[in-house]
Design goal:
By secondary structure, the chain is of the alpha/beta class. Helices cover 40% and strands 14% of the residues. It contains 12 helices and 15 strands. Bound molecules: pyridoxal-5'-phosphate.
Length: 389
């Protein structure tokens, strides 16, 4: 491995949302990595900072080309230049798309358990959240296509937000599954918004399938959000690309992003994203190996020390989704207990939907020493919880 991910970076007292915790606490919650970003990105930001003038910023062709080349080279999907719009983040884009492409009181379909902010983007805009819950069979998740079709067939359902790969369960949807979803949505006139923010964080050897690459039906009826922010830890730079192949949809989405004023980049994000997409591949490949090793460590630790927990197999993201049902039917209470007892801060599953109630989500994007510390705390916390019960 060329790059070293084992060096801890002290983020306490740096206005980090993740690290806004007490000094003895260890945050392994929000999807934010503790690693320094790739050297080329840091260099690009430092160079821009040196300029000392921080005025308004354009979206240069070099940025768009870097996105096109990245998707062509690593995801085998040729984007056209005009398909790519800029937004100040995936969540701002999702909220804008919900407002522009649906009307109040319509249903926006999601697949719970899923990224918690999807709920906010729907609910805060006065639309109904309609979940076609993913079904957990005790080992892994699958889609109940009958339920999905029944919900898509409701004329009030006009948008589906797909998480591809899926946060928090870590699943990479295969091409056939995406095709089935895409064709059902097209049949029932439901637009697909595919959030692909975790797509560059796949297990080494596995590849995700861009929804719009599946076939023309999927391409013409979809909006895709992608970003370098998860893979290169740039969330604080607020940037994302919104890919809309269909020109009619694209015009509307573009108007929405502009009306909502979420279409202009900040002064650092063009250089940072372009550096990531043009010079960051080797770093990213090492990162994915390191994350996989962290996951293997946790799986083994849990098997040996906390066998009553079940780690859901994870193909993507740096998050692990762990079923704690044998310990607690309510992980909100369990997580609070563990945090108070040991300082370990993980996310409780219900944040991602009611059917997540017995799960916890653990963020493993940190040096191994922190993962080890986190696991020791988890063991202490769970043992103390079981004794207190
Ligand atoms: C599925 C998913 N979408 C979007 C985001 C956030 O995107 P952004 O920071 O670009 O708004 C996250 C962050 O964890 C996420 O997991």
């Amino acid at each position: 491995m060329t790059y070293d991910f084992s060096k801890p970076v002290d983020r306490r007292h740096t206005n980090s949302m993740k690290w806004d915790v007490a000094d003895h606490e260890l945050p392994m919650w929000v999807a934010d990595m503790d690693f320094e970003t790739c050297p080329a990105v840091k260099e690009a930001i430092l160079k821009k900072a040196q300029l000392g003038v921080y005025g308004y910023t354009i979206i240069p062709d070099s940025y768009i080309e870097s996105v096109m080349n990245w998707w062509k080279t690593y995801h085998h999907f040729e984007l056209k230049k005009e398909w790519i719009l800029f937004s100040t983040g995936v969540v701002p884009a999702i909220s804008s798309i919900v407002r522009k492409m649906t009307t109040p009181a319509e249903n926006v379909l999601i697949q719970s358990p899923v990224y918690n902010i999807f709920y906010n983007s729907i609910y805060n805009n006065g639309r109904n959240i309609l979940s076609s819950d993913l079904v957990f069979d005790g080992k892994e998740y699958h889609i109940d296509f009958e339920d999905l079709e029944a919900k898509l067939a409701d004329p009030q359902t006009t948008l589906m937000i797909l998480c591809n790969p899926h946060n928090p369960i870590g699943k990479i949807w295969d091409k056939e599954t995406l095709r089935r979803i895409g064709h059902l949505c097209a049949k029932h006139h439901v637009l697909v918004l595919s959030d692909e923010i975790h797509c560059d964080l796949c297990k080494p050897g596995l590849e995700y399938v861009p929804f719009a690459s599946v076939d023309e039906v999927c391409q013409n009826n979809s909006i895709t959000c992608v970003a370098a922010s998860k893979a290169f830890n740039l969330a604080g730079l607020q940037s994302a690309s919104v890919i809309v192949p269909n020109p009619v949809l694209r015009h509307k989405v573009n108007r929405g992003l502009n009306t909502d004023e979420v279409a202009e980049p900040n002064v650092f994000c063009m250089e940072a994203n372009t550096a990531a997409f043009t010079k960051g591949r080797a770093w990213l490949e090492d990162l994915c190996v390191y994350i996989e090793e962290n996951k293997a460590y946790v799986r083994q630790f849990i098997a040996e020390n906390l066998p009553e927990l079940y780690v859901v197999p994870s193909e993507a993201t740096y998050l692990l989704w762990v079923n704690c049902q044998a310990v607690s039917e309510d992980t909100e209470e369990l997580c609070q207990f563990i945090r108070a007892k040991t300082g370990l801060y993980v996310s409780s599953g219900e944040e991602y939907g009611k059917n997540g109630k017995t799960f916890i989500r653990i963020n493993l994007a940190c040096p191994r020493s922190r993962v080890e510390d986190g696991m020791a705390r988890l063991k202490n916390g769970i043992e103390a919880y079981q004794k207190a019960d």
